[in-house]
Amino acid sequence: SPDLQCASSPQACPALRRSSSGSDRSHGTALFAKREENLIHAMEKAMEFHETLQDLLEFLERAEDKFAGLGPLGSDIDAVKRQIAQLKAFKSEVDPHMVKVEALNRQAQELTERTSAEQAAALKEPLSAVNQRWDELLRGVVERQRQLENALLRLGQFQHALAELMTWIDAT
């Protein structure tokens, strides 16, 4: 230590103190630089999370409106087939956003690992809302697809029964 060396060699004291304080300063500067780097990294992560969140919120708003506007089930085979094609096109617009939802959840996980419980809760609230809306949208698409397929089946059976009736009427 510099103090011990000063006691044994008083003439080396000023030089030792200068080199010691220089070492402490460079260590402090390195710590400060590391903290600053960590802070910048955390801010970049937070901004990335916020941008992804905003993109998804805007997408969900548009997608939910579009889904709500799909209208009631068609009453004839051609209308139902058009609606199935329309739903398929809608689903092809929605599916690629699954990657963004997964990325948002991953970003939130990374951010909450380095934050206070209060900050983590502030992140999880909008994340939970996005996840819930996403799940509801996907459930809605699956349910509508099931309804359209059932309607197509019923209409096909009706058409078949009607054709048989017409054949019977023509025969009698």
UniProtKB/TrEMBL annotation:
Molecular functions (GO terms): structural molecule activity
GO terms for cellular component: cytoplasm; hemidesmosome; intermediate filament; membrane
Region named Disordered: 1-28
InterPro entries: Plakin, Spectrin/alpha-actinin, Spectrin_repeat
GO BP terms in the entry: cytoplasmic microtubule organization; intermediate filament cytoskeleton organization; wound healing
Alphabetized CDD domains for the sequence: SPEC
Skewed-composition ranges (Polar residues): 1-11
Pfam family, one: Spectrin
PANTHER family: ENVOPLAKIN, SHORT STOP, ISOFORM H
Identification of the protein by name: Uncharacterized protein
Upper lineage: Eukaryota, Metazoa, Ecdysozoa, Arthropoda, Hexapoda
